[in-house]
Amino acid sequence: MENNKEEMPLGLGFGLAMNDNAMEHFSNLTDSEKKQVIETARTVQSKKEMNSLIQDIAKM
């Protein structure tokens, strides 16, 4: 079975796909930084929180 810790949460993937800045900034992160963002996204409890995370990524 695949390692699910590497899998991007759907909300994060959709959010990045909808925000070019966030997608560009995320793609420029190191692997460990990406893992940190993914772990943070796993703790998100609402759409509003996910939108806030996406905005934070866009501002990096």
Protein model, in words:
It contains 4 helices and no strands. It is globular. The longest helix has 13 residues, at 47-59. The mean pLDDT is 92. By secondary structure, it is an all-alpha fold. The chain has helices spanning 10-18, 20-27, 31-42, 47-59.
Radius of gyration from CA coordinates: 11 Å
Q: Please report which band the strand proportion falls in: under 5%, 5-15%, 15-25%, 25-35%, 35-45% or over 45%.
A: under 5%
Helix-residue proportion: over 70%
Order of helices and strands: HHHH
Which structural category fits the helices and strands?
Answer: mainly alpha
Amino- and carboxy-terminal Cα gap? 34 Å
Mean pLDDT: 92
Which spans have pLDDT < 50 for at least 5 consecutive residues?
A: none
How does the overall form come out from the CA principal axes?
Answer: globular
Major pleated sheet: none
